[in-house]
Each structure stands twice: as C-alpha cells, then as structure tokens.
Amino acid sequence: MHISRFLISAMLIATPALGQSTGSNPFATPIAVTEGVVTVNFTEFAVIPDAGTEAARMNMLVDEPGTRRLFVNTMRGLIYSVSYDGKTVAPYLDTNAAEWGVPVNFQGTERGFQSFAFHPQFTQRGTRGFGTFYTYTDTSNMTPKADFLPSGDPHTHDTVLLAWTAKDPAAATYDGAAPRELFRVAHPYPNHNGGMIAVDPAARAGTADFGLLYVGSADGGSGGDPFNHAQNLASAFGKILRIDPLGANSTNGKYGIPASNPFVKKAGVLGEIYAYGLRNPQRFSWDPKNHNMYVADIGQNIVEKISLVTAGANLGWNKWEGSFTYGAREVGMANQRSEAGVTFPIAEFDHTDPLLRRPAVTGVYAYRQTAIKQLTNKLIFGDNPSGEIFYVDADTLPQGGQDPIHRILLTDKGSSRTLLQIIQEKNTAQGKTPAVRADLRLAVGPQGQLFVLNKRDGVIRLLAP
What we know:
Shape: globular
Oligomer: single chain
CATH class: Mainly Beta
Largest sheet: 9 strands, mixed
CATH topology: Neuraminidase
Number of domains: 1
CATH superfamily: TolB, C-terminal domain
C-alpha cells in the first residue's frame, strides 16, 4: 500500500520550493517492452498449501545449508520446510500459535510475519549460535513496553524481533522453547512495517560481520514520512539496522551493538543504525562477486529505486524520492541528484510506466552463476504488484533512471509471459478467480538458483536454463 488512508498526516510534509517544476512522470521514456528482453524457462518447484480459501501469502525463502532444507514463511505466521528437490513440503513452526504469546497481526496487505533468518552456526553443536534463528513479526500483543517509539501518535501494532533456539536443528518440526524477545518497535500506522532480516552469507567466523543481523525498518507508515523519521538519526524508523543478536550491550541488554557500526558512540545517534534515509526497504542482498550490498526501497507514489548501500549511507528519503527532491507527494524536476552526502539510486522507475500497476519495487539479487547464461552478471529485481522482473548490468552499474532497465520474461508453453499471466492461468486451473496482482518475491537457493514466489497461487517457481 503506497497511498495511505492517513492523508491528514501526510499534509505535514514540506511542499516544494516556489517556482520549482514538479512532475509525476519523471521518466518520459517508458521501460522498453521488447528491446533487451531476456527470456528464461522455469519449473514449478514446490507448492505451499492454501490457508483456508486464501493462497499462501509467501514472503521469504531462505536456504539453511546445514540441514539441506529451504524454509518458506507466510504472512499468517507459518514456516514451512522444503526439501532441496522440492518434493517434500511440511510445516516447521507456527509462530502464531497461542503457546508463544506473540499473535501475528496479519490484517491488511502489509502486516504479518515479515521475515526470518538463521544464525550461520545453526547446525554447529557447541557454538553460541547453535539451533538459533530469528523472526521479525507484526503482532497485536502491544502489552510489553516497546524499545523503539515513533515521534507521535497513533499506535496500531508492534513489530517484534524474536530469537528461537531449536534443540535439534535437523528435527522435522521446531522442538525448542518459547522465543526470546530482542527488541520491539511500536508502529504508528498499519503500513511500512518491519522488513527483511538477514545475515551476510559471505561473512566467515572470526570476521567483524559474522553472525550479525541486518534489520530493515520502514519509516512508520502513513504517507511522506510525516514524522520525518528516515532522516532522524535518533529514530529506528527508515533505517537498516545492524545488531549482534547474541550480544548484550544494547539499551535493553537483550542484544549487542557492534563496535564496527558507523554511528557507534555518537551523541544523540542510535548505534544500531547501519544506513538511513529509507522509506520501505523491502529487500536487500549482497553481491557474491564483489560484496556490494543492494536494497530495493519502495517509493511513495512516483519513484521506485534500487540503491547501493554502504556503512553510514544516507539513501535520501524523505528529502529525496529517488533522484528527485520530494515534497507533498510531488518530485522536483530541477537539481536532480544534487545533494552531497546522499547515495542516489543506481536504477529507478516511475509509477506511470504502462507495464506497471501501482508499483512497488522488490528483489534484489546479483546473479553470478552460469547455469542460466542469459542472466549471468545481471542485477535482478522486480515490481511486486505487476510481477514484472527486470535486470541491469551488475558490473557496470547505472547512474539512476530507468533507461538501463530491461525485462525478464518467462517461457511458458512456447510463449513469453509475465509472472502475473502465469499466475492467472494457474488460478483458472485451480478453479479460482484470476489474481489482479502478483505480489512477486525473489529468493536465492543453495547453488545461487533464483526462485520466484508470489502470494496468489501458492507455487514456488525455479528459474531454469
């Protein structure tokens, strides 16, 4: 949801300077429909069961190499295990079960069980991280005191980061005790909630990044960041945080703040912050070749963007939406990419493009494998609602705009199709009303394979040579 029903709050945003031209279509040339198109095959890898009459709202797929299983979560609170061949799908944990005391708030389109991650020592007996994994969940239980508060009212729900410890990591289902709460965020609005959590897969034992948890935190919702959270370095909203989940030097004593974080020991600044100026950091990842970190940050109602993330980076929101100055739901066309110290996007697209429908960027992965040669060395991302999948060159990064963006289409029964078209055909075969949006998600497997998830037909698809 991009345009919130809390419009009154959005009026608090500053308006563009007088005399500055504004526009809702900053990229007059649409994304090329046929030029540079890459087509790939796919297989139906696995199916996640419906939740009643509703298709499973899949949100993440995570590889756990020690147990040779993939894990998939749904917004309603379930984690499923999936065998590496996709033939065995089984419930692993219901985080919404009453015994845990953390009921999942999955109302609307954006709230729910957001993300999960495994400690890299999950299967290594005798280590500090043995059996440990983490979940990031919107909850309706707002009784405990929140660690991070918004800069104003109201208070719709909390997002809670939990640590779980399995007794036997290889067990078919979770066999541990109740989770330990690491921190809790009080959210003022129902949109722009907790985002992705992940550990850097390339970090090795003994390095500064090993076992640290990166946590995407959106700006708190409504429209335009009415409390100016994203640029406020004393606020946890609108940030990527970086914590040591096994440490204890945080304010609440339940997790650690790494000494290598960029704002540690700076007065009035949260030491947890790794990067700031984000609106809704939907997905982030690291390039396995050069270790670049990328984020797909959902825009307000004009520009969606993919950005390079470095320690201490300011990604611009809410002063900038993409390469453009922002104010009152408009972008300024003058002085583009002109503020020193702001990290501007490498790629971006606007909401008027005819390929899209109320866009929301997602992704983002650098494909460095050679199995699908036409995707090798491509940075791959997509548009959540339309299901369009895109790429740019991962070795020669663009400097903003949408001209470098090209489409990836799926080969189906001899023709090239979008994901939404394939979902609609599947819905018809399932005896369901065809979906009007895809709710695309991308994920990476144990050998760098690319998986395509969605919230409309329950099918996990694997891109294939």
